[in-house]
Amino acid sequence: MNWHTLSKDETVKQLKTSHTQGLTNVEAVRRAESCGRNVMDEAPPVNALLLFLAQFRDFMVLILLAATLVSGLLGEYVDALTIMFIVLLNGVLGFFQERKAERSLEALKKYQAHTVTLLRDGRWMDVEAGDVVPGDIVHVKAGTRVCADARMLKASGLYAEEAPLTGESRPVAKIDEDQLDQDAPIAERTTMIYSGTSIVKGEGLAVVTETGMKTEMGRIAHLLQHTEQVLTPLQKRLDHLGKVLVASALLLTLFVVLAGVWQGQDVYQMIFAGVSLAVAAIPEGLPAIVTVALALGVQRMIKEKAIVRRLPAVETLGCASVICSDKTGTLTKNEMSLQRMWCWGTDISAAEIDKGQVPKPAMQLLTTAAAGLEKGGGDPMEEAVTACAARILPDSSAWRVIETYPFDSTRKRAGVLMENETKERMLIVRGAPDILVERSTRVHQGGKEVPLSPMHTMTWQKAVASLADRALRTLAVAYKHVSPGEKPTEDNLVLTGMLGFMDPPRPEAKEAIAECRSAGVKTVMITGDHPKTAAAVARELDMMPPHGRVITGAEWEKLNEAEAKEALRTAYVFSRVTPEHKLELVQGLQQNGHIVAMTGDGVNDAPALKAADIGVAMGKTGTGVAKEAAALILGDDNFATLKQAVKEGRNIYDNIRKFIRYMLASNVGEILVMLFAMLLGLPLPLAAIQILWINLVTDGLPALALGVDRAEKDAMKRGPRAPNESIFARGLGFKVITRGFLIGIVTLIAFVTSLALEPDNLTKAQTIAFATLITAQLIHVFDCRSETSIFSRNPLSNMWLVGAVISSVALMLVVIYAPLLQPIFHTTALPAVDWLLITALAALPTVLFAFPRK
Question: For the structural domain made of 337-439+471-488, what CATH number should be given?
Fold first, then answer.
């Protein structure tokens, strides 16, 4: 039911209630039974055990479980227990993260009022908000948390703060007389108040129209319940990588077993060899290292005032191709500012006001406008006037307030009667320009009062249109002298001028948007504000080209599928949108192949925040619901911080690619040295425990250190990667195979050379293979830091990596030379001469590719 289209009498009639008596208690009970209680539906709680078990469905986790099984089959129980510990730790962390993410619906409860004053059986009483039913007559005043959707019956200077619902922090004046168009967006339904919003000024009576899940807030709760969080691009790529690795391991195992049996080898020995190859193919430490790299990114983002709630989302911003940004507070300062002063013959800009370059006529206008206003009055435009007056006006304490006439919906103006020390009285009136010009007979021009002529009226109308074209909110100012004892009336006024206000753009947002554009990221404004205001801010920020479109929520609803797709491509501003519109816009952009980041701060943003590839909530002004639904929180509510987070996200993904390249090249080397040895009928060059040691320990430390590499200089000068881009794209797969092949070959050469010199000393040959493989990897890790050449980056610019390599070398030497560890790891002490062969061979794979490449 479109209650805002009905008059107040029609609404009361439709709801079968009474202005003066309200509902009877009997009727209220009957309606409670038919309509249900005025509360949000709660989704059935997720079984904690099932949620915990669900953490082990991830393919990379299944790889770890497979590695645990393999280690157990090989009798390496210490390794099996170690890997199982990693699996359980990941599961516990994921469990608590998901429990935390599902609190969005619970956070909605704080927006439901606890008690409400209403009229039943002709008596005013306080009842629990949950017992309110449609048809109840409720009393609201400043400080009231609205408990249900309601149609105004009486409004006296009533202002509602609807930011949780519309995203706009400016209080909205409520009236009781109008009948609005059916298509009027929520932000323009001035005859309605909504559940979850607050009354900040005035008081009034309203009749309840909707309760519980049928309210606008309830519709948002329903959207949240039925909106699924999407997997991040990294999760999708790692899931794909896991499947490739598992398939490769199974195929290798099968190939080795069949080839060995065909050659007449012992079946059990071939199964053992195949399992060893499977161990080599699975990088057991990869999931843990990815988690740690993401966590390191989180710490760096905290320094940039960005707080990450969902770990896998850390790098998602790096591949975002569209940022859907709220306007108020993110792109703008979220504070109304005096931008222009217009009086007859004088037009002053914000820059001139800030510099104090205000001529006498404008000073008189500001003095009149500020008369009787006090700081903290609640109205944003009045706050802007008092702030400006405090900066540039002399003390006006000679005048005192005698009486105030608050704004109401009928008069559409406010007045204040002032008196000075000589008992001179003046009535100051502030209101809508069209109202005040009708009630004026003179104008204050050139320091004197002159009759209001048709030419003055035409000039006034042109000035009003000019300010409107700049999307400024206007406040006209007039006055009249009042004789002592005379009852003041708001007519025969002297029209002084008008003021133009705007929530100005953040100065740093313009630069951030430009940098995002150069990085291939489009910024789209999605706001509940007026289209002209939104377009003006977009033009100030240079975020919209000349051909860019502005589309309202009402226009969006009328588009067919093809038109909607085109609108998403060409529009840069979507205004007067509902929570459903925001969700549709995000999902539409995703269907068009974009990775979408969505910013928001209100309850109305929560469904879209949850559906976006990465939801970004505001830390200062954001509601609890928005923060719970988001993956990232901006501590300073600043778009420029989001730009820094995009840069960090790209760096995180680049670093993940670096250590995937490093670890998989190592694994390819392990696989090939084992496979070639089997095919040549040689003993296994590496023991299973040695492979696990390399994968979990030796590979792990340098890989972690790659995670702290700083961003490349061109990080924000290249376009975002495609959403379906393979993790092996841009030559990574070729590098993994070629480097891995060479590492495997030199390791096999070292193994065969040792066996040829000492055929009966298999342990020494395995130790030399073990040392060659590790040394080759530790040299190769410095090559992994650059897409071009090992010489393009200073090796000492990442001292964590230098330390990790030194630590890995030390651990290798301990395993080789510690007598207690030699039986466990099948190693033996090597003479110094052997290290010459090991080092020379290990350096070859990196030296061969050391020259710059494109």
Answer: 3.40.1110.10
